[in-house]
Structure formats: C-alpha cells, structure tokens
Amino acid sequence: MTAPDLQTTSMEHAQHARDPATVDDWRWQHAHAATNLDQVEELFPGRFDLSGSNKSLNRVGIAQAISLYGMRVTPYYLSLARKAREDDPVWALAVPSPHETRRLPEELDDPIGDEADGLHPHPALTRRYIDRVLLYPTPICSVHCRHCFRKRLVGRAAYAVTEHELHRAIDWIAEQPELHEVILTGGDPLTLSDERLMALMQRLDAIPHIWSLRLHTRMPVVNPFRITDELVEQLATLKTPRVVVTHVNHAVEVTPQLNRAVQRLRSAGIDCLNQSVLLKGLNDSADVHRELLWSLLRAGVRPYALHHADLVPGTSHLRTSVATGQALMRALRGTIPGHALPRYLLDVPGGHGKVPLERSWVTAKPGAGLQIETLDGATQRYPGQAETSPGFGT
C-alpha cells in the first residue's frame, strides 16, 4: 500500500500559522494538517519532545506506519495533545504508531464488510439493513484516526466517486421505497464545500420516503470551525429531520469550540448524538469514561454507541477484550443517567451489522421465574411466566 494520495492544497489564511490552536477557518485547518513529525514540529516548535531522547517516540517506526497508512491531523486537534506519547488520548489517535506495522492474522482490510457481496449496490452505497443505506460522497477526512475501520480508503483517490456516480446512487435510493434513512459517511461528508454538501442533501430531502438524514462526521471534534453559521442556516432549510453523529472518544476532546459547534446545530433543530470506540488504555476505565459521558451531556450531545474496536490492520494495541467492555458497562450502569449510557456494540465482520455486547442481567430458571442481578451485585427473583419467553438463556 502507499500513503493516501488525495490532499487539499488551499493556503487560505496562512497568516494565522503562528498560533494554529486559535485559527478559526476550517479550510485553513484542513489545508495545514500535519502529515509527518517534521510538520508537527513546524506547527508547534518545542511543544512536543520529538527528539531522540524521547524513548517512547520511535521515529523510524512512525515513518514506516505513515508509509503504510498515511497521517493527517489538523493543527487544532493536535493542539489538544499534552505530550508525544501513546498514553495521550489525542496523540495516540492522531499520530501513527510503530505498532501499526504489525498486522495480526485475524485483522481485515474491510473489517465491517462495507464491500461485502450483495451489500454494495453502487460504488457510493452500502446497504446492510432494510430501512437505511450508507452514502459515501467523499473519502477525505481532516484527520486520519489511527483506529479507523475505513483506514483502507481514507484519503485515497481510488475510493473517490464521481458526481455522476453520486447522482446514480441517489436515483437508486429514490427507487427503494422501503428505505427511510440515508446516512452520509465517508471519509467525512463535512469536508465537502457547503455547495456540494447541500446539493446532495437537497436531492435526498426531496425523496418522499426518506424520513431521516444522518451525517456521520468527526469535524466538530477535529475541525469544529467547519460548523459555520452559514452551513447551519442551510441545513435548517431542509424539511427532513436531520441528525449529526459525531465521534468523541475522550473528555479532552470536548472543548469550547466543540460546544459552540453543537449549540449552532441544536439551535437549528438538529439532534446531536455521539459514537465512540472502546480503546485500550485511553477510555477503557470507568472513571475516564464517566467523565466523557458527563462532558457530552453538558455539551448537549447524547451518547449513542460505544463500539468495540474493529479488526483494523495494525490496531491490536488499541483493542480491549469484550470482557473489558462488558465490565466497563457494568461499572457505568447506575452511576450515570440511563439516557447518557451508550449501547456497547460490535460491528460483525462480513457485513452482518451491529449486535449489542452487554452482559445479561437476567437468567431464566425453569419453574423459578427470572433471576435478576441488581446494581449492588445481589440476586433477586422475578416471578411469573417470563421464564418461558424466548431470548433468555439458562
């Protein structure tokens, strides 16, 4: 594989380069994303220890990982990192790790089956469920997340679809009356210009059987300046209910800039949800995750899904066991409001969709009703006929 070959060359507002953490033009942030450690040093002179004395920084290994999977991180997002170490939640998710050069046999180029047989009716579409479809308008992202399950395609020209292909995909959607939701994903759909994004959204908005338009984006986290008043005003003109699903993994990512972006969206009646990924050593402790969930609530974002990390090549250092995730959910329940507790989900390889991974709190005992484990660890009996219902194991 070669490094991603699509790059934006705009140099707008370069006069702000001396203080990249405060630049408020999203195009500048996107254009000045760092793609190697030398550029990190240019953006933040002396802020990070990138010298040979930093024993946790293997520059040769990082360069090898970049050659395999590329690197892209906006100045804003990198400014949230505290240190150049793999236990820093921003650095670890933005800067390649030497661990990425080690691929395990079970890891997959397409770990969730985006391109599985029968699920890919057009180059721009994946359909796993009867009522919704994924639409990929672009493979571009402002940041290349190291754990991304679409690592194979992000930034790569081979995965860019033409305008003609997008029009054909929307025509196909219009001919499927059982579809009720379109999910724009990628890449990141908010790397499109307002004009291109709204042209797509307006065509989808005109399809009578589409009842929900969902935007999956990491821009509020990695480039929050993208959520401009102009963009929000245009999104507000759509009649179809709109949902923005962002991707916050750690409370350090919930910044005043993200808060402002969310408030703009909510002021236009756009619901904001969050999906995160369970990541080893970064957000797999109850205290850290509880802080994340409360931070999201305070920002006006509803936690939606906690994904078990997918079998992405070179990411075994970021994956926990399912038992770790189940223990985390057990520790969170009862200590965080129920509406702030995400579903713990696994995207089954091969395109089989998502399944919940939460441990069961209920067991059926023939002739004895149900045994319920309570939050304090005690067991209570629930009488009645429920033990004959399907879905309960013995």
Secondary structure: elements and pairs:
Elements (H helix, E strand, L loop, with lengths): L25 H6 L5 H7 L15 H11 L5 H4 L12 H4 L30 E5 L2 E7 L24 H12 L6 E6 L7 H12 L6 E5 L2 H4 L6 H7 L6 E5 L9 H12 L3 E8 L7 H14 L2 E7 L13 H11 L10 E5 L6 E3 L5 E3 L5 E4 L5 E4 L12
Parallel strand pairs: 2-3, 3-4, 4-5, 5-6, 6-7, 7-8
Antiparallel strand pairs: 1-2, 8-9, 10-11, 11-12
Describe this structure in words.
This protein has helices at residues 26-31, 37-43, 59-69, 75-78, 91-94, 163-174, 194-205, 219-222, 229-235, 256-267, 286-299, 322-332; strands spanning 125-129, 132-138, 181-186, 212-216, 242-246, 271-278, 302-308, 343-347, 354-356, 362-364, 370-373, 379-382. It has a nine-stranded mixed β-sheet. Strands 10-11-12 form a three-stranded antiparallel β-sheet, with no helix packed on it. The chain folds into three domains: 14-101, no CATH class; 125-356, Aldolase class I (TIM Barrel, Alpha-Beta Barrel), CATH 3.20.20; 360-394, no CATH class. Mean pLDDT is 91; it is low at 1-18. A hairpin with a 2-residue loop joins strand 1 and strand 2. It is of the alpha/beta class. The protein contains twelve helices and twelve strands.
